[in-house]
């Protein structure tokens, strides 16, 4: 007791001093309270602590903490920067009343959720408030008008809903307003035209609608305005031409209609104008030539008509001119070639005609030229690469003639050259040794002669080479072709090439060889075993002899092997039956003998894969003993004669189909047929009859539903999907279908072929009996974890193939559990891949991106579609993990505590027994959460996902 009396005064003094310290330093106390509300997984605020002992200097403890800025005396907190610290949690806002002198608050690039606390508007001295790239949600709170000193307000990329805050227009000193990238709906308030000092306005990427308010034209101080990627009504107000200081205007992807107001030519300070991906009509105002500072003009993906104004020759600062995907016509004015700053010229998918200006490239440093899918004629301008930086030259689907310009060999900067589907002739004047960076060349569907250049092996970066359908090309495949270290695709079909197939000494990257319908002879080199990446080999319709090499069975990725219509002999290697990747084998119309091996993979190919080999027997052909006994020696001879005659007929049919298979302008009723590997080549009429009673090629069969089942003349059963397109969209749509048809993977449902005319197409898919149904039917049934893990891996492999192995990538577009079907081994197959994206291409303006877009060879808005695929994959994973309990849960799952979610999923999967199973579940859940994050750029690629799934488990 005496000791207590002795210590009591001391304890009392300590308590008083402590109270005084805390009372003297409310900033540190408030920040510690703020820290308690935040989730700090990286311990970024680890130094936020009050040391033991007093504070004799009277300074604020927090002035030494990371992210805290104080005045010179360290007595007042004037700035708080918590950006990029991986912080989460919710904010109450109760602490902000302490920071009366705070000038700058930066919470950007974190994962803070919930509503934005209204208490933040107590910081009345704020000049800069940055809450961008978080996950704040709900309606925007009222009260921001109290921040009368605010100059910068950045709320980009959050999840706000409701309407735009009107009272922000009362901030007289505000210069930067960024409310882009949320879910804000309603119209832009007319009050937004009353800002006094605003210089930067960004409202893009929301759900805004209604008419654009003409009052925005009163913004005399704004230099930068982005209000696109919304869905407005009506046209562009002509009053926008009164924004006299405007330098950057972006209203892309906004559903705008009507003509482009000529009053925009009054924007004499304008440098960038982006109006692409709308429904604008009429002509381009010739008055735009008065906007002399203009550097970037993108009017693509609209319905603009008429020619390019001759007056554009005055735009000497123009770097980007993008008019692609419109209905423009006429010739390209010669003045365009005189623009000294021009770098990118995108005119694809219009109706331009005539020749390109002779001097194009002579006066500027062109980097990218895409004039594909027009009616251009004449030669390639001889000086198109004079600037020395041309990387992409895209000319396909025009009427160009003459020889390919020899000057292209001096174009050392060239990366991609696409000149297919023209009428170029003569020898290919390319010196590959002078093209060190070339990766992609497509010269198919022309009239080239003189063979493949023999120095092709010197193009060390070449990945894709296609010279197919040049029937007079001739020559041989150069002996060192396969040695190209990065070569993935080599296509030289229908080129009258002769000689032997070169030895495969080096072919580490080679994935696709297509050399059908030539005069190749000799044997298939056994060195093909070196091609461990080979996925598709098409040697059909040649004169190849010898046996089918056993070495083909050692190729782990081989999915398609077409050796039909050759002179091969011997037996089918039984080892091929061990291949887990083989999807298609076709050895029809050869001299193969013996019995078809009994493995299941051989039976699954159907009889069409083996017909035309009179010495071959066994399932799915006739049984060996019965057929041989019945025929006898004379019967065999007669059968050989009949089959030879059939082979001649088939060859005639193949030649006819190859003549029409590539897309030409015919009358509306003209039907064409394209067969991919796996579908015997026959006429479109055969296909139409298989699901329609009509026998007329001009009639339009109409299956009762969008998907029907049909049996083709050879007995193959297919699923048929119908798609309609406008005449102008046919070429783009059929190009995507061709890529879909060439996409072969064991986790994809195969597209076997399609027949089409100018406004309608029928896609023929592999018909799967589906003994195990689809994933939607399975998720609510009890499945063991190994089966679930196998399903997740199979889906990932199929999706990764579409994203990473197809070039350009093919988005699935509609990944969901009902579009994932199972074979008898519970191996998942992705159905409907690419179809939704195909509908977008066929019916609407083709998806594109902003002014950084590349070329018309494929849609660069593709990234958005791929990100959506990954999000959908994450949702499918959650559905699998929870036995169907969580469906379409990607948006809501992020706010749930990880440990609670993991515990629930472990219970769903009865995972308490084994540690390795728990680790796998944890990994798969983490992948699902990464895939469904709200920010697309933070989602992993499918390639990264496969790496995660294949990493060793502890």
TrEMBL record:
All residue ranges annotated as the Protein kinase domain in the record: 682-954
Main location: membrane
Gene Ontology, cellular component aspect: membrane
Keywords: Glycoprotein, Kinase, Leucine-rich repeat, Membrane, Receptor, Repeat, Signal, Transferase, Transmembrane, Transmembrane helix
Keyword Repeat carried by entry: yes
Compartment(s) of residence: Membrane
Family indicated by similarity: Belongs to the protein kinase superfamily. Ser/Thr protein kinase family.
Protein name: Leucine-rich repeat receptor-like protein kinase TDR
């Amino acid at each position: 007791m005496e000791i207590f009396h002795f210590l009591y005064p001391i304890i009392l003094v300590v308590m008083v001093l402590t109270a005084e310290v805390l009372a003297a330093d409310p900033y540190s106390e408030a920040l510690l309270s703020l820290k308690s509300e935040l989730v700090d997984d990286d311990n970024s605020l680890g130094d936020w602590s009050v040391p033991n002992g007093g504070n004799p200097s009277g300074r604020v403890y927090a002035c030494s903490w990371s992210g805290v800025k104080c005045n010179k005396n360290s007595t007042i907190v004037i700035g708080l920067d918590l950006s990029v610290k991986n912080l989460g949690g919710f904010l109450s806002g109760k602490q902000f009343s302490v920071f009366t002198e705070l000038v700058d608050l930066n919470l950007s690039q974190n994962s803070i959720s919930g509503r934005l606390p209204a208490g933040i508007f107590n910081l009345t001295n704020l000049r800069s408030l940055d809450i961008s790239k978080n996950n704040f949600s709900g309606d925007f709170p009222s009260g921001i008008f109290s921040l009368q000193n605010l100059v910068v307000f950045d709320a980009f990329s959050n999840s706000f809903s409701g309407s735009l805050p009107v009272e922000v227009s009362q901030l007289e000193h505000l210069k930067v307003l960024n409310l882009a990238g949320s879910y804000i709906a309603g119209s832009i308030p007319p009050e937004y035209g009353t800002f006094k000092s605003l210089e930067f306005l960004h409202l893009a990427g929301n759900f805004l609608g209604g008419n654009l308010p003409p009052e925005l034209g009163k913004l005399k101080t704004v230099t930068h305005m982005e209000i696109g990627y919304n869905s407005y009504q009506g046209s562009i107000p002509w009053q926008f031409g009164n924004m006299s200081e405007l330098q950057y205007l972006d209203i892309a992807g906004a559903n705008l209609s009507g003509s482009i107001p000529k009053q925009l030519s009054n924007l004499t300070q304008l440098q960038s104008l982006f109006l692409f991906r709308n429904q604008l009509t009429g002509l381009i105002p010739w008055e735009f030539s008065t906007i002399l500072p203009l550097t970037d003009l993108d009017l693509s993906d609209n319905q603009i008509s008429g020619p390019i104004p001759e007056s554009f020759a005055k735009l000497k600062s123009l770097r980007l001119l993008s008019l692609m995907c419109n209905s423009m016509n006429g010739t390209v004015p010669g003045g365009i070639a005189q623009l000294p700053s021009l770098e990118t010229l995108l005119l694809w998918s219009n109706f331009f005609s005539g020749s390109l200006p002779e001097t194009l490239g002579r006066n500027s440093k062109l980097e990218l030229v895409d004039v594909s899918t027009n009616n251009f004629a004449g030669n390639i301008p001889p000086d198109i690469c004079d600037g020395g930086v041309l990387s992409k030259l895209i000319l396909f689907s025009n009427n160009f003639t003459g020889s390919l310009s020899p000057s292209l060999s001096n174009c050392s900067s060239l990366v991609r050259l696409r000149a297919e589907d023209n009428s170029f002739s003569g020898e290919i004047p390319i010196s590959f040794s002078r093209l060190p960076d070339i990766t992609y060349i497509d010269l198919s569907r022309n009239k080239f002669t003189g063979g493949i250049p023999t120095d092709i092996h010197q193009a060390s970066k070449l990945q894709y080479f296609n010279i197919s359908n040049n029937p007079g090309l001739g020559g041989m495949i150069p002996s060192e072709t396969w040695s190209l270290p990065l070569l993935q695709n080599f296509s030289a079909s229908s080129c009258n090439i002769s000689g032997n197939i070169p030895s495969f000494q080096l072919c580490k990257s080679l994935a696709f060889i297509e050399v059908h319908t030539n005069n190749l002879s000799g044997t298939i080199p056994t060195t093909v075993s070196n091609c461990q990446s080979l996925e598709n080999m098409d040697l059909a319709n040649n004169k190849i002899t010898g046996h089918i090499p056993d070495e083909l069975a050692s190729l782990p990725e081989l999915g398609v092997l077409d050796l039909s219509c050759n002179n091969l002999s011997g037996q089918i290697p039984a080892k091929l039956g061990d291949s887990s990747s083989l999807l298609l084998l076709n050895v029809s119309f050869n001299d193969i003998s013996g019995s078809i091996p009994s493995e299941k993979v051989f039976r699954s190919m159907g009889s069409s894969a083996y017909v035309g080999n009179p010495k071959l027997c066994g399932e799915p052909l006739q049984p060996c003993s019965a057929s041989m006994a019945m025929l006898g020696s004379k019967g065999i001879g007669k059968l050989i004669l009949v089959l030879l005659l059939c082979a001649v007929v088939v060859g005639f049919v193949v030649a006819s189909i190859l003549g029409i298979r590539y897309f030409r302008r015919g009358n509306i009723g003209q039907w064409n047929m394209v067969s991919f590997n796996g579908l015997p080549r026959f006429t479109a009429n055969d296909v139409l009859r298989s699901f329609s009673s009509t026998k007329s090629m001009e009639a339009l069969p109409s299956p009762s539903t969008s998907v029907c089942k049909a049996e083709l003349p050879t007995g193959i059963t297919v699923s048929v999907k119908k798609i309609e397109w406008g005449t102008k969209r046919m070429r783009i749509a059929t190009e995507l279908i061709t890529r879909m048809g060439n996409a072969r993977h064991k986790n994809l449902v195969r597209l076997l072929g399609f027949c089409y005319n100018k406004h309608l197409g029928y896609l023929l898919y592999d018909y799967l009996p589906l003994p195990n149904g689809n994933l939607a039917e399975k998720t609510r049934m009890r499945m063991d974890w190994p089966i679930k893990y196998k399903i997740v891996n199979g889906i990932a492999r199929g999706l990764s193939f579409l994203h990473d192995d197809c070039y350009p990538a093919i988005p699935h577009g509609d990944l969901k559990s009902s579009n994932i079907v199972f074979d008898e081994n519970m191996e998942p197959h992705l159905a409907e891949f690419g179809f939704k994206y195909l509908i977008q291409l066929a019916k609407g303006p083709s998806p594109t991106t902003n002014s950084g877009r590349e070329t018309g060879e494929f849609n660069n808005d593709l990234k958005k579609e791929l990100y959506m695929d990954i999000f959908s994959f994450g949702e499918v994973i959650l559905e699998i993990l929870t036995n169907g309990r969580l469906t379409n849960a990607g948006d809501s799952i992020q706010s749930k505590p990880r440990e609670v979610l993991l515990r629930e999923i472990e219970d769903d999967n009865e995972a308490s027994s084994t540690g390795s199973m728990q680790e796998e579940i944890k990994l798969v859940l983490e992948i699902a959460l990464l895939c469904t994050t709200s920010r697309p750029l933070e989602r992993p690629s499918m390639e990264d996902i496969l790496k995660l799934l294949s990493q060793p488990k502890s």
